[in-house]
Amino acid sequence: MGSDYRGRNKFHFGLRYALKGLKVAILTERNINIHIIAAMIVFVAGLLYSISMIEWAILSLTVGAVISMEMMNTALERALDHLEPEHRPAIGVAKDMAAGAVLVTAIVAILVAILIFMPKIL
């Protein structure tokens, strides 16, 4: 019983920290909120166009990827800014690459939305 209890306790602490991180991101990061608003629009469109279960799954995974990538980018930027407050070219490159990863994920999300909704709109 002891190890099971500790495992559940670790899970609850981990969940609490994860929810705290999500709350901080939502309350402090403009880009996260932009992605959340876009996700709400996509989900409303999904309801209006009665998309299939597989399309819901694909959209949900895509939205989750974009928001998760934005949060990872933000976490990396904050950590690097804390560790090295002065501008360093290598840190700038790392931050640019993380931002580029968000951009790639967002572009793919737009393409997924087009592939799902365009046939229904036309």
Automatic annotation (TrEMBL):
Residues binding a divalent metal cation: 29, 77
Subcellular location: Cell membrane
Keywords linked to the UniProt accession: ATP-binding, Cell membrane, Kinase, Lipid biosynthesis, Lipid metabolism, Magnesium, Membrane, Metal-binding, Nucleotide-binding, Phospholipid biosynthesis, Phospholipid metabolism, Transferase, Transmembrane, Transmembrane helix
Gene Ontology cellular-component annotations: plasma membrane
Residues passing through the membrane, by range: 32-51, 97-118
Cofactor-binding details, from the entry: Mn(2+), Zn(2+), Cd(2+) and Co(2+) support activity to lesser extents.
Membrane topology value: Multi-pass membrane protein
Positions with a binding annotation for ATP: 17, 29, 77, 95-96
InterPro entries: DAGK, DAGK_sf, UDPK
Family: Belongs to the bacterial diacylglycerol kinase family.
Gene Ontology molecular function terms on file: ATP binding; kinase activity; metal ion binding
UniProt superkingdom: Bacteria
Main location, first listed in the record: membrane
Protein's recorded name: Diacylglycerol kinase (ATP)
Binding site for substrate: 70
Cofactor: Mg(2+)
Catalytic residues (UniProt): 70
Gene Ontology biological process terms from the UniProt entry: phospholipid biosynthetic process
